[in-house]
Queue: 4 jobs
Job 1
Amino acid sequence: MIAFKQLLSSDVIVTPLEVNKAFTFSGSQLTGSTVGIDRFLGSQSTSSLFSPTVEPTTGYLSTQYQSLVYNSIKELYYSNYLGNLYGTPLNTSSIIPGTNTSGNVSVGPYPSPGLYDNYLQSTLTFPRYFPTATYTPSGSIYGSGSYGLGIFQGNPIVASIGVISIPSRLYGDFIQPGSFIFTAPSGTIYDDGEGNLLLSGSNLLCGNIFYGQGLAVITSGSITTSSVPTDIINFVTSSNVTCSFSSSLTIYENQYKCTIRENEFTYTLNPTLQTDNSGSLPGYTTGSYWSPYITTVGLYDETQNLLAIGKLAQPLPTSPTTDTTILINIDM
């Protein structure tokens, strides 16, 4: 039989708990139905690299225009870094009030129109490079200070980026900083925990990762004689790749405190102990030494619908001299 007791708000404690899980996928696993990691090539050009009359598309799981991928990433994540690797500084102006509105005088520069949040990963200052021009390379500037952009004599270079998109069902609330590694035939990139993607070995900046959106954006790399960065193409199009990262998800642990007072539930509700149809009980069940046992605790809503049930490891006798408290933890 069931004995009910109403819980108060003070009997319920909700505690957030952050949990992490590591993932590693290789080859065709990335585009599998249970994984769904997509990769895109973004290009500034609105025509195909090989046919000027065809708008190129990209993507494995969803088809997108390369120019739209390029422009979307630029607007959302790099719009404040196009003119300055470290972002456009905030300009402010002050108003000296006049006798009326028309007499107000502004002193100082007006705010810049290019002030965007761009999903900053930390309060530290890091450069963000984004290719914005098609040009013909000459000479080599690969090395320190080039932010990972190695240029060698070759054909005209189309401003291009690579995008690795991880679905939210995998990364949860965000990708755990310092856990992202992506390996392709052209090399390995990893994040430094601050939102930067670095080339393994040289440790040169080659892009950025946006943990809360599950996006890794490759903006530069070693360029050979092809019309776009070869290693960007390899990261995006190669089937011989491996992607590793850890997800972070906040779950909420609900703790319910069920307290049985010393004068509560001191009699049995077991119908097999009834001596007759009147419901009378044997005398030993009403004595001061009689102690019922608790085996199961259920949580019900206002209309007595069973929501959760918990079994005790062993029957628990109620105490006639002190309160008994049972704690129920539920993770959601």
Job 2
Amino acid sequence: MTRIAVAAISARLLAEAAMREGHEVVAALDLFGDADTRRASARWQGIGAPGSFHVDAARLLAALADARDLHAAELWIAGSGFDGAPDLLERGATVLPLAGTTGAIVRRLRDPRGFFAVLAAHGVPHPPVCHAAPVPAEGWLTKDLAGCGGWQVRRTTDADAGAWTPAPGRYFQRETDGMPMSLTYLANGRDAVALGFNRLLVARVGVFPFVFRGAIGPVPLAPAPAAAALRCLRELVGAFELRGLGSLDFMLAGETIQVLEVNSRPPASLALYPEVGPGVGVLSAHLEACAEGALPLAPAQPVMLRGHEIVYARTPLELDAAAAARLAAWPGCHDLPHAGARFAPGEPVCSVETAGTDAAEVQGRLERTRDALLASLETA
């Protein structure tokens, strides 16, 4: 058993995985403090405003120091919210040892010029990118490697391009057809094993057309694109010395793939892979890969296809005690807000999960559950 602190925009997945595997979650640090996050940890502490999707550096560092000094935490695991904060990862690692990819490596991953230069040098296919405003702007996306969850991606207009100024992490990428996919992996700095391929679900939220709303996996992939994705993964693990859990995001079009980015921390698809072998939990495997370089020889494939989806508010919502209790009793509902919580349109309310035999069945179940849940809250 390891005494762990977990930190993320939403830390529920990490906290529950650690608790399920017999570790002691002495502190869960995130923006929401949902009921199930608190149940999975000895202590919760807020590290940012819920609507900001931003980790406050001072609050995080103080919370890590408390976890170390008051609760004897041995290490911490960083989830979402640190992709564009390599300096904060480094500062946090001086307070409490970090189990995962270092801030120095994240800095390289999130520098678009350097990242795409490495992809080109290793023959990793990706959509065309440019680092100056494209003319004409049509067909290009404005992106920022410092962001996450699709909140940093917009379709570029001529007005956007005309007003664009260079900034760290920002670049333009040609929009490409295909299905958004990811490969969940476990790496040790030299090699990696694939846990499975996932279909990513995205939705338009306001001006953002590709906001992450969930994943379904593991889904089968044809031999050619599967082999191409695995080759790309191994090239990038070696080039960047990636460690622990992560995901390789790519677009799938027929038999070809184009890599978009690497998330070098436990991804949301963690929910789809509770074990990497008989009795070996996925978060324990993450810790072993980071500390000892151990990788499972043949990761177990889940028996069932799983899916999870973030439920975003369609209208302004305020939860009374009855609505909060209704969510808590809803089958497959997680990230449970407290009574009195308020949500503007486009803000995450909770998440739902289900299972099935194929991706279409799972996606249909997720959509029906989401719509029924929102209709219940909106009617109330």
Job 3
Amino acid sequence: MIPGALLAELDSVSGIVSRPAEPMTRHTTLRVGGTAELWIVAETAEAVARVASLCKAHGTKLNYFGASHVLVRDGGLEGVWLRLGSVGLGVHEVEEGIEVGASHPVAALHAWMCSNDVPPIPYLKGRSGTVLEAYQAGLLAAWVSYCVVLRGTRVTSLPPEKHSEKQPLLRLGLLRTPRPVEEAQGQLRLLPEQIQALGMPGRIVDDPPNEDAALLIREAGLCGVRLRGARIGHIESNAMINLGESTESDLWLLIQMIRDRVRLHSGIRLQPSLRRLGSGKVHHG
């Protein structure tokens, strides 16, 4: 339960839009999930910091909703959930290179770089997903010069090696030319097609080592299989389609069916790519 005093103070914060009992079907790519107890969209870095400060003062955890390709449980999300508005979008030039919002589509970033005579980053052309997802997949490692993050109750810039995954990412500073990045000890050098597939948005299960999850699903005879309101893709088998009125429980049951059938067919255990958020108990806002 969110303290009433916190709700009253949040109403006076400029640069945010707050909505109680916000349906998460509006904010997830698979259009499933219950409601968020309090949903806040912050348009400025100052608003982000102010919301964080108020939540801390009232002893309320501030949750960050970054990527939309997640499974929000049918019971919804308890507490305060923050999503970036315009502060997480847009591209502009800075002294060392460019700065881009974490929520900015990577395909739009690639197009901006091409139209502004900035050498484009490989593997971003035509790619779906956001800058945040590409960053988390490691595709931007050689280009990142600094991270603009929420650290406690302050928005600050940090070098990438100092950035923790627990610190919400607002924006990234990118170099015009990549710097050398040392490979981890014993790590194999990836082929271009493997790099292209890293953290591919839309996937429902991860590729096992030296295997293609989509091929394993296809070989198990699961292409196009339907369960209630959800269906496995006909062409891209490592994807799910919400046919309408599907619930998170339906999609999760379909993922479990994929794991069980593939394990019986090939002996390989697949791991879900989709992160589950929220409570299994239905709340009524």
Job 4
Amino acid sequence: MICNLFFITPTIAQQVFEDIVYEPVSIEYEGVHSPVIQDYADRAFVAIKNYHSKTAQELFDSILIIDKHNLLGLYGLAACKHADGDYEAAIEALTPLINVNPKNAGLFSLRARCFMVLDNMPKALEDFKIAVELTADEKDILSLSECLFYTGDYAASILEADKFSLKQNKKPDGFFVKGLAKSELKDFLGANEELKKAIDIDPENSTAYFQMARNFLLLKETNKAMKQINKALELDTKNAQALDLRAELKYLNHDYSNAIIDCNRVIQLDDETKYAYLTRGKSYNKMGLKKDACADFKKALELGNSDATEQLTKYCK
């Protein structure tokens, strides 16, 4: 019985999408247009991208001294809040701007990104839909696809990711999102085809190898799964989920002692894992170490792994 069947979480996916979420968007700004204002704005957004939000804020303040109603300056201050990680303040600043500029896609886009990081996916989804309707910006299309994935609308997520990939077929992101969504729809072969496309473009994406390994495991192709999980770990030696999955594969291949070694490494990285304790317990049990096995089954159950109940009932009376 395969117990370690967890799908990739939004938190893990978010790490892959981090650069897209962080990058400030381009919008059509309203207010006074002048070379001085544009120069301040260009320098300010470079400062944000380089994580110098204090410098950026000073430049946006300079814009507002010239024109206190300038949307570029007001949007920039909200972008600074976003860059500083103060997403609620950014939303608070953006909402009145949106109310008076309801056709400005960039405002909706930035607010959506704030909602996204705050894990308010329904609100993010609503704003990204509006942003895409207004301009069909490629980054917003991809982010809309991500939000649809997070909210469980996998078929719609694939459709939006397709739109992105048609425009940006040299970027891995659309293929990666489609791979995740097809995995959730249990189209594991189709998912791996998409993930392979993402890997061909970006061979350093350890998460894509990890997800391919999971899909092969679910297809009961353990040798192919092992090959992919080893690639994931070559790229990220401290990936606890990848180690956890490899331990499961080693257990299934009756390599109990090495399964235990991987489980020990997982537990060192994350002692709250509910999967590694179960896999290690099963491995101990196969090796005749009942006391150690039962201790791990109890720990797995304490951490919320209900599959440990069967093991405790069967072997630890």
